[in-house]
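Researcher: I'd like a candidate sequence for this fold, 141 residues long. If you have to choose between options at a position, lean toward the conservative one.
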């Protein structure tokens, strides 16, 4: 698994057990420039059993490939296929003006709906009062 943190690339993987590695594993991490397919060379000899590894000072707008080779005292145990690391793309910032305008429009709509509901309630009430008064007048006469 890979992720960008600024201009550093974080790489993590499921480490081999001592049994799978047939001894204490040493991980060799190679980095390739994906656009030119040029091998940038050995980035790290990593002899810890606990990833992750961070590769600093990269151009996060570039695409890279990463290969991890595992060796023990007897030689190569395992090698991964190349993992392509896509460039980091920052999310587009939300336009503050558009967000404010959208909030204002939403507030105006809410106020208009509330005012319309109040007007309808008042009209219904007045109609009921008017009907009731008309019935009282006609019964009296």
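Model: Candidate sequence:
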């Amino acid at each position: 698994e890979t992720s960008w943190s600024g201009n550093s690339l974080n790489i993590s993987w499921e480490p081999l057990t001592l049994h799978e590695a047939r001894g204490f594993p040493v991980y060799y991490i190679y980095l390739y420039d994906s656009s030119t397919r040029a091998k940038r060379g050995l980035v790290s000899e990593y002899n810890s059993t606990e990833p992750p590894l961070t590769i600093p000072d990269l151009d996060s707008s570039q695409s890279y490939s990463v290969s991890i080779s595992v060796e023990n005292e007897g030689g190569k145990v395992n090698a991964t296929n190349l993992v392509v690391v896509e460039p980091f793309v920052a999310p587009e910032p939300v336009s503050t003006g558009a967000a404010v305008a959208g909030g204002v429009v939403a507030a105006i709509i809410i106020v208009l709906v509330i005012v319309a509901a109040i007007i309808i309630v008042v009209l219904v009430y007045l109609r009921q009062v008017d009907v009731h008064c008309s019935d009282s007048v006609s019964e009296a006469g």
